[in-house]
Design goal:
globular; single chain
């Protein structure tokens, strides 16, 4: 595997793709939680919008973080772990822990319900190993997966080197489907592990690993004539369509399409199905980045999608707390709750995220660039 120099820090189209991802999550939770039975029957029962949106976020994270790390390694000959962890800490922790504090206070006031251990798992970024999560903090499982990735991956690249690190990512792409099948086919003794299939790092990390591989192999892929022809062909539209169709086929639907038994359909979905979804998402991201000036690219890089993508982290933090079927107050009803989500996310971004990012920039100048402060 030949590593690819990473692109610039601001990658075209990614914010627009983030906007689509958070839109899928919001649509999923509104339909699922607020009594839209017809849509729920024909949409959520067929296309798991929320899961697809989160999976897109995972591939983006692997791609973006690895691109930044490879750029640093190429420019400086090494990766600074203190610098990386500082950047991630000041980017992620402040709005996240403000959310947790708010949820804890609301729970203490009797407005929200948490299950035993939820808050501890959320604080320690281990919610993806909590088998019984309350709605209000249930979505933090995906943030735990990402935090575990941030903690492990830069250190592995530094210790193993880029080439062996990418081989390790490829190994996870192949191993995760096997892990899912083993756990799902396990005995009653593995029941708790069974309930974390699809949230634990070892069963969803392949989506992030596909993004890592995309970042490391983009130049090599572009030199492959067959891949380049596909990316440049109008027929490429079939790739995102295939992703949607595969996401639209849980085990019951795959039984119909393949003629397999329910167990066989489950095995197909958890192995080949999710592999194709992850790879298809990665290819679609690559296509979008390379075609930022085209019709789709112009939309992805338009002001509104870019703004929604920019605040997507805060949107994701607050959406599940406020799109909450357990709340009975009028502001918790559609569409007021959706407006409240956007309002809370906007406050979170401008009052917490941006000041934290400015602090990060000052610390970087003082500690790492050795400028006078």
């Amino acid at each position: 595997m030949t590593p690819t120099p990473a692109p610039a820090r601001r990658i075209p189209s990614l914010d627009g793709i983030r906007a689509i991802s958070i839109g899928l999550v919001l649509a999923s939770h509104i339909i699922h939680a607020f009594g839209l039975p017809t849509l729920s029957r024909y949409t959520i029962g067929i296309v798991n919008f929320g899961n697809l949106g989160v999976r897109i976020f995972f591939v983006i994270s692997g791609f973006l973080i690895t691109s930044l790390l490879l750029a640093e390694q190429s420019a400086r000959g090494t990766i600074s772990l203190p610098h990386f962890y500082l950047r991630r800490t000041l980017r992620i922790f402040p709005p996240y822990y403000v959310l947790l504090l708010s949820v804890a206070l609301a729970t203490n006031g009797g407005w929200l319900l948490l299950h035993r251990g939820d808050l501890l798992h959320a604080v320690t970024y281990t919610m993806n190993y909590q088998p019984d999560r309350a709605w209000s903090l249930g979505h933090t499982w995906s943030l735990a997966v990402e935090e575990q990735f941030y903690l492990i991956w830069p250190a592995l690249l530094l210790v193993l080197g880029v080439r062996r690190g990418l081989w390790l990512a490829a190994g996870l792409v192949l191993l995760a489907p096997v892990t899912r099948i083993v756990l799902l086919a396990g005995t009653p003794a593995t029941f708790v592990l069974h309930r974390t299939v699809g949230t634990s790092f070892e069963t969803v990390g392949d989506a992030i690993a596909v993004g890592c591989l995309l970042a490391g192999l983009r130049t090599w892929l572009w030199q492959a004539s067959s891949y380049r022809r596909l990316i440049e062909s109008p027929a490429f539209i079939l790739v995102p369509l295939l992703v949607v169709l595969l996401a639209a086929m849980p085990e019951t639907a795959m039984t119909f399409w393949t003629g397999a038994s329910r167990n066989g359909a489950l095995a197909l979905y958890q192995t080949a199905g999710l592999l194709l979804i992850n790879v298809g998402i990665g290819m679609t991201i690559d296509w979008s980045v390379r075609n930022g000036e085209g019709r789709v690219g112009r939309w992805l890089n338009a002001p509104i999608p870019v703004w929604l993508g920019t605040i997507s982290y805060s949107l994701y933090l607050w959406q599940q707390v406020l799109l909450n079927p357990e709340l009975s107050v009028p502001v918790a009803w559609v569409p007021l709750n959706l407006l409240l989500v956007v309002f809370a996310a906007t406050i979170s971004y401008y009052a917490i995220e941006r000041p934290s990012l400015r602090m990060r920039s000052r610390i970087e100048r003082c500690w790492f660039a050795r400028e006078d402060c």
